[in-house]
Amino acid sequence: MQEFLSSLGQVSAIIGAQWGDEGKGKATDIVSEHFDVIARACGGANAGHTIVVDGQKHIFHLLPSGCLHEGKPVVLGAGMVIHLPTLLEEINTLKEFGMDILPRLTISNEAHIIFDYYKELDAKLEELREQGIGTTKRGIGPAYMEKAKRSGIRMESLNKDISGELESAAKELNKTYGLSINSDTEMTNLKNAQEVLGGCVTDTVTQLHGYLKEGKTILIEGAQGTLLDIDHGTYPFVTSSSTTSSGALQGLGIPPNALKSCIGIAKAYCTRVGEGDFPTEVEGEAGDRLRERGGEYGATTGRPRRCGWLHIEDLQKAAMLNGITHWNITKLDVLDDEDEIPVGVGYNGDEVIYEQIQGWKASTVGMTKFDELPQNAQRYIKYIEEKTGVPVALIGTGQGREEMIIKS
């Protein structure tokens, strides 16, 4: 464990290598215990991170999973779009568990606010598309639209009177889309947020650079996954933000040369939520089996995830885009009952070329040592290493925090 941690350096990022839902939260929770500062850079409440500690399930959408570790500063970066009621709800949930995060929470004054009417606009835009993209309807797309139009409202305005801006937005929304804004609801949400979060909003770029000068270590928690990146993902079926390590650095205002390592998170198989290509998707009995064994239902939406097999080319692309230095292969135990495990290795035209890997037909649940794994499970991990050229450092063998192999 110590050898692995020392290899991560002062700044490390945890990035999803597939279409999100890879299990980033658990790795972040484990690794963050050994970092000084926890930061989230981009995205909004369309992300869902599930952590199981002592049998208790915690689901976060805006707060990084590492926030469960007492005493560590938690930073929400400029690249984020923040729905204030959701953030307040997560803060209150932590309070119910006896944890007050406010004294150590800072929010970038450059992050954008998601208003409730953005959700209505999100649904309307999805309705108007000839083919839907499977948005979560959390207002993420409209928030980034407003940001790109340079008409968004940022957290720096939280303590100001923005009734004029909301009035202008209401006129445009009604004229363009026939939608209306409930100004009372929006102002109430802002007032509630002002009372709780007013003292948390600050210049987080200067703060983070201060941490770097002090020699503090920073762990960056990514959201969604590489194949959903607005630039490099399976466009147009992507999210509205940059989900790569470089996007995370931009979202926090940390220079590229500060990043010393990147842990890529990938399931031992693959899932996707929403529309878009999924070449290794499998339906019928095999797909249902993966879904039920893996509990593949969205933490944010509850939607059943589409399930399929690993595709090596996806991992190779993720490794290139992010500079991945270590893999965390999650949910290995979901494959315990498979006779053979198909792995996509390329294409013949539009058809996926598969290699069949022999299954191990034995339980790996809860294992914490690589040598304890069945031989064929070890071979599967080594196969991924050989095909991608990236070592596997972490292997998930169950939901619990402790059900993880640290591979030397």
Helical content band: 25-40%
Shape-level CATH architecture of the largest domain: 3-Layer(aba) Sandwich
Unreliable residue runs: none
Beta-strand percent range: 15-25%
How would you explain this protein's 3D organization?
The chain is of the alpha/beta class. It folds into 2 domains: 315 residues, 3-Layer(aba) Sandwich (Adenylosuccinate Synthetase, Chain A, domain 1); 86 residues, Orthogonal Bundle (Adenylosuccinate Synthetase, subunit A, domain 2), CATH 1.10.300. Helix content is 33%, strand content 22%. The strands form 4 sheets. Strands 1, 2, 5, 6, 7, 8, 9, 10, 13, 16 and 17 form an 11-stranded mixed beta sheet that branches. A hairpin with a 2-residue loop joins strand 14 and strand 15. Helix 4 crosses helix 5. The longest helix is centred in the middle third of the chain and has 15 residues. The mean pLDDT is 93.
Structure, briefly:
The chain is 33% helix and 22% strand. By secondary structure, it is α/β, with parallel strands linked by helices.
Topology:
Blueprint: H1 2-6, E1 11-16, H2 24-32, E2 37-43, E3 49-53, E4 56-60, E5 74-83, H3 84-96, E6 105-108, E7 112-114, H4 116-128, H5 140-149, H6 163-177, H7 183-197, E8 201-202, H8 204-213, E9 218-221, H9 245-252, E10 261-267, E11 270-272, H10 284-294, E12 306-308, H11 312-322, E13 326-330, E14 340-348, E15 351-358, H12 375-388, E16 392-396, E17 404-406
Parallel strand pairs: 1-9, 1-10, 2-5, 2-9, 5-6, 5-7, 6-8, 10-13, 13-16
Antiparallel strand pairs: 3-4, 11-12, 14-15, 16-17
Helix pairs in contact: 4-5
